[in-house]
């Protein structure tokens, strides 16, 4: 492959989503081929101890590379070759034909996570379409049937998240709650992306700074309560379910599926607001599995999805500023 083509497209490929916006992927350019790996400094060992979200993010990046290359007439394919020890997931290389995808680089560029209000959830046809996307890979997309129970589970998951100093410390290290943060325009989560007003962002910053001192005095409960109930902001919760017996390489494949699901939603005028803590916390993962009648280890990703009432803030990337304006 003319690897220089990918070098030019790389800033667009970085629009792929990743948990906490850590952008863990790394491209290693070799003669005629490019290895896709990751940097352990950009993983979340406390919040994502099994590496599930890391693998989903890497898969989402691979899918994004293929979509961007295809749209810009660069025939490219991905050869999966997962090596956890040496931290790579496979190779991008020249192909005879362009990758077949209904999505465009402009959609990659425009898609964003939306944590605000939704005026409506996905209709039956959209659910059918995203389910078909997952079924092509042996998975499925399920709508969570009981919103009240899910809201209670979310409260429990938030409490567990904020009770763990390692998880909170890690979250804090990826929050960019003031434009004065040196990495505000590079990575992590800004207050604007989280839908916080400047006052709320300052309050969260102060609370997290006080966390070590106030942890035993009930701050975790307060933080969980302050997180509120995003499910009250509209939409419906959908779950990406994998097949039984998935290994790590299969999870990377489902990161590709997740990207296709999100772009399908985007194309329908909808957006996703992931709620991964529901799968991260063992108790709520088990309860969610029981609710859907699915083994908990098959639950890959959960998000509230719906039609946003307004635009979401654009998240930062370490490389970018690529003024692509579509076909
Ligand atoms: C595997 C995965 C898990 C995620 N989990 C969460 C989550 O639990 N809560 C949340 O608000 N966003 C979550 N996100 C969204 C990321 O924070 C978001 O993709 C990132 O900040 C970049 O923003 P963008 O999607 O608008 O480009 C997740 C994204 C991925 C790929």
Structure description:
The chain is of the alpha+beta class. The protein has a domain at 3-110: NADH Oxidase, CATH 3.40.109. It is built from 12 helices and 11 strands. Strands 5, 6, 9, 10 and 11 form a 5-stranded antiparallel sheet that branches. Strand 3 (76-83) and strand 4 (88-94) form a beta hairpin. Helix 4 (124-135) runs antiparallel to helix 10 and helix 5 (147-163) runs antiparallel to helix 9 (219-226). The longest helix is centred in the first third of the chain and has 20 residues, at 52-71.
> Would you count the extended β strands for me?
11
DSSP helix fraction: 40-55%
What's the multimeric state?
single chain
CATH topology of the domain at 3-110: NADH Oxidase
Cα gyration radius (Å): 19 Å
Anisotropy-based shape: globular
Report the structural category. alpha+beta
Largest sheet: 5 strands, antiparallel
pLDDT under 50 segments (min length 5)? Answer: 322-327
Listed once per kind, the bound small molecules are: flavin mononucleotide
Classify the beta-strand content into a percent band: 15-25%
In the CATH hierarchy, what is the class of the domain at 3-110? Alpha Beta
CATH homologous superfamily designation of the domain at 3-110: NADH Oxidase
The helix/strand order is: HEEHEEHEHEHHEEHHHEHEHHE
Average pLDDT works out at: 94
Kindly report how far apart the N and C termini lie.
23 Å
């Amino acid at each position: 492959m003319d690897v220089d083509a990918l070098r030019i497209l790389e800033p667009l490929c970085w629009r792929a989503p990743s948990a906490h916006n850590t952008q863990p992927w790394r491209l290693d350019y070799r003669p005629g081929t490019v290895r896709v790996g990751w940097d352990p400094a950009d993983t979340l060992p406390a919040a994502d101890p099994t590496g599930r979200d890391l693998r989903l993010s890497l898969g989402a990046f691979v899918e994004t590379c293929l979509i961007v290359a295809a749209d810009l007439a660069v025939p490219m394919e991905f050869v999966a070759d997962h090596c956890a020890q040496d931290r790579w997931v496979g190779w991008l290389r020249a192909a005879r034909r362009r990758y077949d995808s209904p999505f465009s680089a402009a959609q990659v560029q425009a898609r964003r996570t939306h944590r605000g209000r939704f005026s409506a959830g996905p209709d039956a046809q959209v659910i059918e379409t995203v389910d078909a996307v997952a079924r092509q890979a042996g998975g499925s997309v399920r709508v969570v049937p009981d919103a009240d129970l899910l809201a209670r589970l979310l409260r429990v998951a938030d409490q567990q998240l904020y009770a763990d100093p390692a998880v909170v410390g890690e979250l804090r290290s990826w929050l960019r709650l003031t434009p004065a943060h040196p990495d505000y325009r590079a990575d992590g989560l800004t207050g604007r992306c989280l839908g916080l007003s400047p006052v709320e962002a300052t309050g969260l910053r102060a609370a997290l700074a006080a966390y070590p001192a106030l942890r035993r005095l009930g701050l975790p409960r307060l933080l969980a309560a302050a997180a509120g109930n995003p499910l009250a902001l509209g939409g419906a919760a959908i779950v990406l379910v994998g097949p039984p017996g998935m290994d790590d390489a299969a999870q990377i494949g489902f990161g590709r599926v997740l990207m296709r699901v999100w772009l399908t939603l985007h194309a329908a005028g909808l957006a996703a607001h992931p709620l991964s803590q529901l799968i991260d916390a063992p108790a709520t993962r088990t309860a969610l599995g029981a609710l859907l009648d699915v083994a908990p280890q098959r639950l890959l990703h959960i998000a509230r999805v719906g039609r946003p009432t307004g635009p979401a803030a654009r998240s930062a990337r370490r490389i970018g500023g690529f003024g692509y304006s579509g076909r």
